[in-house]
């Protein structure tokens, strides 16, 4: 089974969290609540999240300060943050949100369909990155384990390469479809950049696999970095 992505919802008002859950429940992912910036940072210590929906105005640690802490941590700095705010103080206030590391800045009341669509894009990108890490792990197994499968059973190198190639092809096809969807929808620049980064990593992994094929030039191929 494909593991569900986790989405972190941060708001000090329970009714707002309930509304977000109602909007995002159709995505069929795992929704995690946090009622403060401190609680959000604690959740981020142990779990991986596809995207964070972060309220700007909260008592104590506000959204801007919370985002700053998230971006300072190596483990969490690449998680997309969507700021939600009930106030609008003009361009300066919006700029502060982007400067804090947000990929989007949405004023309340927002269109539920738009919010759900934006979140779904980052969930899809997260899932594709998870699949890519799995392919990279299998490739490392081929390079380091002498052709053994993930469960330890012996497998012919050519058979494992064919399996890896087929799995990678499926991810490449899905990533290409997602990129076309982003182009068609004129999506946020951050989402487009993330998709392009994913495609570059896929290209590197494909080259490494091709180098392992019989008849390819000898020499150890490099496994693409996951950063």
TrEMBL record:
| Gene Ontology biological-process annotations | phosphorelay signal transduction system
Q: Which UniProt keywords apply?
A: Coiled coil, Phosphoprotein
In the UniProt record, the signal sequence range is none
* A Pfam family the protein falls into: Response_reg
Q: Which PROSITE patterns match?
A: RESPONSE_REGULATORY (PS50110)
User: 4-aspartylphosphate-modified residues are where?
Assistant: 55
Per the database record, which ranges form the Response regulatory domain? 6-123
Q: Does the keyword Phosphoprotein apply?
A: yes
State whether keyword Plastid applies.
Answer: no
Q: Which domain of life is it from?
A: Bacteria
Residue ranges that the Swiss-Prot or TrEMBL entry lists as coiled coil? 161-188
Its recorded name reads Response regulator
Q: What is the lineage of its organism?
A: Bacteria, Bacillati, Actinomycetota, Actinomycetes, Kitasatosporales
